[in-house]
Backbone:
């Protein structure tokens, strides 16, 4: 359950991982390397403020995968055909 500290919602590392769609270890690594801001609550609890989640999502996650319209380098360069006489011509060349 998120905590509200000074009017800002804070999430546990597990909640932050769930909200970002990442593993818990990835979130812990991001905190350890300083790429994800956190606030220590007591000696055992690190919380991630909501603005830090949004910043991490915007800067680090962005758009994943191949850009829309990008072509696969391994895709065949010839279009399939329904012409039976064309069968096997690609292999013969």
Residues:
């Amino acid at each position: 359950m998120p905590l509200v500290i000074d009017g800002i919602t804070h999430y546990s590392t597990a909640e932050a991982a769930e909200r970002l769609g990442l593993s818990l270890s990835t979130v812990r690594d991001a905190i350890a390397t300083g790429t994800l801001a956190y606030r220590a609550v007591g000696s055992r609890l690190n919380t991630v403020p909501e603005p830090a989640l949004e910043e991490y999502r915007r800067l680090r996650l962005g758009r994943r995968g191949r850009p829309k319209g990008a072509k696969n380098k391994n895709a065949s360069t010839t279009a399939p055909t329904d012409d039976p006489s064309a069968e096997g011509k690609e292999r013969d060349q």
Q: What stands out?
A: Residues 3-61 form one domain. The beta strands are 3-5, 8-12, 39-41, 45-49. Residues 50-61 form the longest helix (12 residues). The first strand starts at residue 3 and ends at 5.
